Amino acid sequence: MKNAALGFFDSGVGGLTVVRAVQDLLPGEDVIYLGDTARLPYGSKSPETIRQFADEDVGFLLSKGVKAIVVACNTATAHALPSLQERYRIPIMGVILPGVEAALADPDTERIGIIATRGTIGSHVYQHALATRKTGLMIHGVATPLLVPLIEENWISEEVTKDILRKYLKPLIDKGIDTLMLACTHYPLLVPVLEEILPADVRLVDSASTCAAHLKKMLGEMDLLNVKNDGGKLEIHLTDLSEQFEELAKRFLRKSPGKVRRAVLVPG
Amino acid sequence: MKNAALGFFDSGVGGLTVVRAVQDLLPGEDVIYLGDTARLPYGSKSPETIRQFADEDVGFLLSKGVKAIVVACNTATAHALPSLQERYRIPIMGVILPGVEAALADPDTERIGIIATRGTIGSHVYQHALATRKTGLMIHGVATPLLVPLIEENWISEEVTKDILRKYLKPLIDKGIDTLMLACTHYPLLVPVLEEILPADVRLVDSASTCAAHLKKMLGEMDLLNVKNDGGKLEIHLTDLSEQFEELAKRFLRKSPGKVRRAVLVPG
Fold it and tell me: A149 vs B152: CB contact, 8 Å cut-off?
């Protein structure tokens, strides 16, 4: 069982930032990644629809014999993780709890800003998870739906991107946040620009590295860590193939994604 | 048959700009509109996937007994219209040919710019349709994937939107275009901003009003016009419902969309 692969799914290729962080921290693990590119994005869709899609995504990964599943997508974690954990026996974790715990690990954290898609912010799942773990927090979420298309357009260093970030972040900076949670798997690519724009004392917490650390702890506790030394394999399956996705996958992974396969999901 | 409704489909609610233009020009027609919001956008997906989705969309409209179908989506027209016209006997028209004919109606047209999603530009369908109808044209297409999210964010009058439009349009203005084709059903909402940014002698050709004029002609020739005087009904079906879609629908229609129903498509 230790030697089985880890399964990851996301609406698209953004979840590969989580895979990259996991490969850095757990180099012996094999990874099977499913991106539901035919139906992306999940961020603007209803909870009911997202739960149905997530169920089909998990079904695909289970058919590949994975030992554990990471929901590498904030929207799917927000809307579907509890029902997935109820339905399946295999360990399934999301990207939200690791981020929340990392944000609260610093006892001085008091004023937290959250940026994410409309779906994640509207679900209030971050706000709720933070507020139930620590009282007296000031939490302020801002939906930032233009950031994913800007990243995908590869306009990260453009002046308009900085203008848009300044516009989105102004209410958070005005409120004096000490921590900014990047609650979308695309956003780690914005870290250099965010560091330029934000006051120096604002701490950034992203979904990718926090999720990798949490996964390592969980696998260790369950005695499921793959400790082989010959390097993990990565297998990417997408429900729709296009050059753009392969190009994006390369930017998120910071290396070639290798051969990408077309996945066919079974309706749930 | 004249009294049957017209069927429209799009990946989302953008095609409602076409419905609005049709309601202005053909007030007696009833309209059944299908937006495949669960799987939007089509613009970044592969031709094969888009053909499958379009086939399912047409199946839904046929089950409602429509007399003719408008593919109110540039990407679906680009990739799926020929196969749909081959497969079904009912009249099916798209949004591309009407725009192309309108652009070429002015005999002085020589230098044409096209803005659209990555999928539409990459399909070269506009470039091809223009070039085969008139020789000696200079045609220049630019993929402008940020415009749909900017419109959906309702940032139409914001300075960053003007900056992004200036950046996208600069190569076209530098090339001295005399005509700009707005090859996406969302873009009619940008007309006031485009008129502000573009040189005064650049003519704008949009997908909505040109499609309505073409539809009127086609229905007249086939003796399928509904000439009743009591006003057409509009029935909107979406594969995923959310407040955001209803709010967007209202902006595209410039009036309340009424009750929106959830559509379930049958896999093709």
Answer: no
